[in-house]
Design goal:
Elements: E1 5-7, H1 13-21, H2 25-31, E2 36-37, H3 38-45, H4 49-61, E3 65-72, E4 78-84, E5 86-92, E6 99-104, H5 107-117
Antiparallel strand pairs: 1-6, 2-4, 3-4, 5-6
Protein name: Transcriptional regulator
């Protein structure tokens, strides 16, 4: 996948705008540059875990965050691991409806960040 800006046709504008408009959504996206569990995101951003799960669900529905798999937590439970799908998102309000352009994260960038984080 290319890292060039591409016009986004899905998800729809109201879903993305609604997700981004909620408190903590931007902080979650910033923190999710590397794979993290909801618990880790909650602790990193210092927000209640229930709020974190709600925001994660909204961001996943909007296509801005993805579940990359599952891993065992420190307590031995299987937990979902999330990472953002975009590095940049631009909203153009000059037409009848908002239009989005985005800079999607590439798999190569994810792999490099994963190696640097080890």
């Amino acid at each position: 996948m290319s890292s060039h800006r591409t016009e986004q046709t899905e998800p729809n504008s109201p879903t993305v705008l609604s997700a981004l408009g909620n408190k903590y959504s931007a902080e979650i996206l910033c923190a999710a540059g590397t794979p993290k569990s909801a618990q880790t995101l909650s602790e990193d951003i210092e927000i209640p875990i229930a709020t974190c799960y709600r925001r994660i669900e909204e961001l996943v529905d909007a296509g801005l965050l993805t579940c990359e798999g599952r891993q065992l937590s420190e307590k031995g439970r299987r937990t979902n691991i999330y990472r953002r799908t975009v590095d940049e998102l631009e909203v153009d309000f000059s037409s009848d409806r908002p239009a989005f352009s985005q800079k999607r994260r590439t798999e190569a960038k994810n792999q490099i960040q994963d190696k640097l984080g080890e």
